Amino acid sequence: MEPGENAPAPAQELEASSALTRRLRQNIAQAVQIRPETLSHVLVALLAEGHILVEDYPGVGKTALARALARSIDCQFARIQCTPDLLPADVVGTNVYDQREHRFEFRPGPVFANVVLVDEINRASPKTQSGLLECMQERSVTVDVYTHELARPFIVLATQNPIEYEGTYPLPEAQVDRFMVRTSLGYPEPADEASMLHHHEAVDQVAALDPVVSAADVLKAQDAAARIHASGPLRDYVVRLLWRTREDPRVDLGASPRAGLMLLRAAKARAMLEGRDHALPDDVQALAEPVLAHRLVLAPEFPRTIARDVIADAILSVRAL
């Protein structure tokens, strides 16, 4: 074990955490038609204590996914519908004067839930976006010099509509960088969509879900994921991938050091999902696109979709040791 490295998770703890993720996967899949790969991205972000940006069309199940995740882990769920007049206090909470006690009392906002769905985050004003993203980074709220810790576990699923930009405030690159994973749900396969219509036409399948793990179980799994082993050569591999994106002529601003840290944490969480006590280059390669692509600033003449090609080319050109 290298200096400063946490003790690895025991085999028994690793097996318990792997079993937890299997239960979560099966339970969520009962209520939401979602590609296994996308569901893995959600679970990776949960285990790695990251947040998720979902760019997709209306009606494909983004809200259902967040609700299903919250019910499955028996945690509090909150939805924030972003509009231009939404204020930071509407998200984080505010102090209210109690006339009976003759003092101010803090009333927490929806961000104090465990699973927070921020719908159409780019419709909120930049000031409100900044307040929310500060909560995501610091995991606490400061109101009138008093700091209030957020709930644990804590995960934000923010959505954006990729085809409608009128009246929106696009997230600055520094704020997009706060999201560990960017993903999309897409339309289900015809057979899956027909099955969804059959099962959801009369009953809300999400509301019918029973919890399969507790919040305490999730915290234990997050701790186990943090202690998955990542070798020195693997960390070097991540750094060389980052530098390859910075050197690509199609990119004005490559992946940041924080992007590398997020990628390594996500790779360790994926290794645990696979039942391993150590992360591999395969984990890094599988998550490079959803973790890194949205963090790249491309040259003006290239469309956003080129970011995927940049990541793919970096994986092909950088050899894992």
Describe this structure in words.
The chain has 321 residues and is of the alpha/beta class. The chain has 2 domains: 11-227, P-loop containing nucleotide triphosphate hydrolases (Rossmann fold); 229-321, Helicase, Ruva Protein, domain 3 (Orthogonal Bundle), CATH 1.10.8.80. The protein is 45% helix and 15% strand. The protein is built from 12 helices and 11 strands. The protein has helices at 11-31, 36-47, 62-72, 88-92, 126-138, 173-176, 190-200, 215-226, 232-247, 257-273, 281-292, 306-317; strands at 52-55, 77-81, 93-98, 103-108, 115-119, 140-143, 146-149, 155-160, 181-183, 251-253, 297-298. β6 and β7 form a beta hairpin. The longest helix is centred in the N-terminal third of the chain and has 21 residues, at 11-31.
**Which percent band covers the strand fraction?**
5-15%
Number of beta strands:
11
Q: Are there runs of 5+ residues with pLDDT below 50, and where?
A: none
CATH topology (level 3) name of the largest domain: Rossmann fold
Observed structural traits:
45% helix, alpha/beta, Helicase, Ruva Protein, domain 3, five-stranded parallel beta sheet, Rossmann fold, 321 residues, globular
Itemize the secondary structure elements and their pairings.
Elements (H helix, E strand, L loop, with lengths): L10 H21 L4 H12 L4 E4 L6 H11 L4 E5 L6 H5 E6 L4 E6 L6 E5 L6 H13 L1 E4 L2 E4 L5 E6 L12 H4 L4 E3 L6 H11 L14 H12 L5 H16 L3 E3 L3 H17 L7 H12 L4 E2 L7 H12 L4
Parallel strand pairs: 1-8, 1-9, 2-5, 5-8
Antiparallel strand pairs: 3-4, 6-7, 10-11
Helix pairs in contact: 1-3, 1-8, 2-10, 8-10, 9-10, 9-12, 10-11, 11-12
